[in-house]
Fold this sequence. Notes:
Layout: H1 2-19, H2 25-40, H3 46-62, H4 65-70, H5 72-83, H6 88-133, H7 135-138, H8 142-185, H9 201-239, E1 243-247, E2 253-256, H10 258-263, H11 277-283, E3 291-292, H12 301-310, E4 313-318, E5 324-331, E6 337-343, H13 345-391, H14 398-422, E7 431-434, H15 435-441, H16 443-450, E8 454-460, E9 466-469, H17 471-488, E10 493-503, E11 509-517, H18 524-527, H19 547-557, E12 561-567, E13 571-579, E14 606-610, H20 614-626, E15 630-634, H21 637-644, E16 652-656, H22 665-675, E17 681-685, H23 689-696, E18 704-706, H24 711-722
Parallel strand pairs: 8-10, 14-15, 14-16, 16-17, 17-18
Antiparallel strand pairs: 1-2, 1-6, 3-4, 4-5, 5-6, 7-9, 10-11, 11-13, 12-13
Amino acid sequence: xxxxxxxxxxxxxxxxEEASVPDDFKAREILRMAERLQLGAKISSLSxxxxxxQRFKFQYVQMDPLYLGANPRWKDILERSGIDPGxxxxxxxxxxxxxxxxxxxxxxxxxxxxxxxxxxxxxxxxVGGQAxxxxxxxxxQLNSGLSRIALFTILCVVVAGAGISxxxxxxxxxxxxxxxxxxxxxxxxxARMPKIIERDEIGELVEAFDVFRGNxxxxxKISESLRQQTKLLETVFSSINDxxxxxxxxxxxxxxxxxYAAMLKLPADRLKPGLSMEEVQALxxxxxxxSWSLQGGVLDRDELRLKRQLASQRFERRxxxxxxxxxxxxPLPEGGFVTLYSDLTERKEIESQLRQAQKMEVLGQLTGGVxxxxxxxxxxxxxxxxxxxxxxxxxxxxRPAAERALTAAERGEQVTQRLLAFSRKQRLEPEVTILDxxxxxxxxxxxxxxxxxxxxxxxxxxxxxxxxxDPAQLExxxxxxxxxxxxxxAEGGLLSMxxxxxxxxxxxxxxxxxxxxxxxxxxxxxxxRVFEPFFTTKRVGEGSGLGLSMVYGFVxxxxxxxxxxxxxxxxxxxxxxxxxxxxxxxxVPETEVEDNALYHLGEGELLLVVEDDPQVRVMVVDMLxxxxxxxxxxxxxxxxxxxxxxxxxxSLVFTDINLGERRTGVDxxxxxxxxxxxLPVLLTSGLPVVQLEQQFGLQSGAALLTKPYTRDSxxxxxxxxxxxxxxxDVGNAN
Length: 734
């Protein structure tokens, strides 16, 4: 106990030296508190000690917590010396109590000894008086009574000796108790009481001391554990990345960590314990004062405050800089609630991008399927219209109608190609291309397309950069973007096309093409939908809604990235990133150039047509017969093999790939190659080549005629498979 008091006095003396700062009012307050601690270690009156302790605690409570927080060493000395369990005042109070108990025990012992001495003396005096009074009477019996007197005297001496021994034993036991209590007061927790078997006050004192010692050690352990837990909680409280605050049952702010103020944009110097929720709310930015449910609705402020006291709540606050902060409140058992604040901005953006990517993927699959079905229909329509047109006289009244219908069907074919472009399933013919040269090559066409009111400005900075791209599709994409920009600048404006080197989101090097206009811009609610097929803000008849979707699919299929930014009233910028390529690392086959030379008409060769769609099958038969071929038909894999085993030899098999059953035209081609080695096979399908390779196992380089096809393209494909020379002495297919 004494060593602890000396340690506290040493810490207080150091504090007095450190707090002796001139012209610092708060430091003088610290100094006065330290002087009171120093006085508490010397004071001898319990009542004065208690009064001094109350004044110290009152003065400490009045201190500025921010000032104390800025001087952690002073705060630690004041809390350990005057506030925490086992402080200087409590130790001094224990010391005074122990001293009072020691003085009381010593006084009691001396009083008992004095009383016993007085009683013995009184007894001896009384006996002596009686002896004197009877001296004359017993003089005659002196000789006979001498022995009894001697015996009684010895008895008195024994009684006196016993009393003295009792006093000595009491004094020794009391001295032992006093020394052990002094050691315990000095901080020696290993000090133990000697075993005393007496059942007197000393024995009771020893038992009480043992209980006191056990309680003191337990309190010491509890205090140390609480101190460690408090330090751990303070460390966790201040170190977590999320903000955290605690409000009491009266909606008063009690505690918070630094991230709380930073995340909510609260002025840290104005936060203090006891602020009401309304006062904290007033410190928030104006845009962040409304609470939003996770489903997007605005929550009632008063109702939400009551709910946070009763059950766990989750909601969001939105800031004007675009950040979204999630509030997760949980009620406390003794009233009030604790809230954890998390910045969800990045997660929300990632979720939005994921939803958009999934949406575009689903749309791509849908449009690819629609394009396939549409191609099958167009194959029958275009083929039959060509047959009708061929069989009409040049001056027939129905011929113009047939020609218009054929033109419309061919436009439908263009629509399917755009759908396939969006779904990234069109057949591309990539070439090593210099983007700057390609743009300069179509500059005249772009200027003509945008009109005289729009100025075209080129800023091309990648003259030596090579990319692997389908140049025709890229030109088509540029033309679509230019026409869209011109539509947004009805009163005129500036259309800029810029190229520069840039890295993609994954760090790959490439060329960035930016197409920017100064038009009316796109409203935010439409911006996320502009790449969807058939979505357009133009009036009916002014646009198909497939331009940007085609650009999106083409860029994605070319392993690039596309993004769009727009501000209403200022304009729109479309950014297309395409990867660089090294032509030395490519194995690009030479493109087979087809001329418009004439092909041999049929000479009665027998062709086997394998087609599961009845309408397309009839059209193909009519078209082949009009080209001079004989035909035999089959609607399935089994029927085709059966027809091949007939007596009449077949010159070529023309089969659809998707036969509507488990076995396909590719399977039929493999079987024919095994059984009829020299028999040529020509495949056809309305699906894109990529999908045919993935889904049906189409081999690269296989002879394929894509639906819809014309009589000329059909005749050319058959001639190529039959090995007929392309000579000009036979006339064309018409």
